[in-house]
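User: Is it possible to get a 3D structure for a protein together with its bound compound? The compound here is zinc ion. I've pasted both below.
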Amino acid sequence: MGSSAFLPRGDAECAELALCATWVAIYVSTFIFPSSYCLTMATPPVPSRLFQADVTWATLKPDEFQWLPCLLCGSPNYESLASLVINWSEFFIVKCPRCGLIWRTPMPDPGFLSDLYSEKYFNVAEHSPSLIYQVGIADADEQSHQMRRERTQQEVQDWLERGITAKNEKGQQRRLLEIGGGRGYLQLAAQEQGWDTLGVEISPHGIKSAISKGFIVLPIPLDQLCEKYLPHVNYFDLVVFFDFLEHVTDPGLVLRMIHFTLKDDGHIILRVPSTRQVPKLHLIDHICHFTPETLQLLLEREGFSIVETHHSGVFLAPSGDQIDNLTVTARKRPA
Ligand SMILES: [Zn+2]
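Assistant: Yes, that's possible. Here is the predicted structure of the complex:
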């Protein structure tokens, strides 16, 4: 702070000006630019808003929101890339400067996430047409169903090239667990090729749809996924989760649960949307955006070694926006 005591004697006018400037600086730093902004005179960039959406069938409880540190490395710092508004609450797409993970903060309350995946989510085109661009349901008609069935059959066929077979050396069926199987496409394709399958799903509508096709699907609320399956230690040969990991609030916890359920020589196959920049496509139901690097960090931290990675087409939203899909096969590293 300036003081007239350090000015040349007799320069009263200057002293008065310096004192005045000091008071202005105190006022500005206290009331206009609190904290460090006054020192650098820099204003943080305002992130661009991606969309504003009203989910009429699910209620947000802002009192229960959580501002968590980085979901991958725990760093408390992040850079805001973009924002969006859901039911009058603002959320930010942020990037961790330490590990590069991109995720959405704050974390909404668990009740909102449970309500979100109700039947209306799967029939959004009918119930809330204005939301069709912000929800990841892209197979609304019969042509899309057929395309997805064929694509899934090809996926399961391709596992053979990676040495992942439906039967073991003794000719016994191997066990496959699918998480977040929705309408049962993968279970159908895997059963056709000889796998013994089981699905877990959080959405009552997805469960109803899969059961009506004759599949075994257990209703597991997302927050109970880990507790309910921990007893099945070393049980499954393969755990598959397509378009699932980007939806969960704690991807590390989900992977730890899967590690427990897998046999020591078991594999996982997962597919996620992959981006390196501000996501071109962010959906109400997405929490994390992975890059090949952040996905590798996460998998290695949770006890998996990547066997193979490939780009697996694009997720095309009704808006015309698209994002690359990344499919990763990894092997369990026994503890
Ligand atoms: Zn991080």
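Residues 48-131 form one domain. The longest strand covers residues 262-274.
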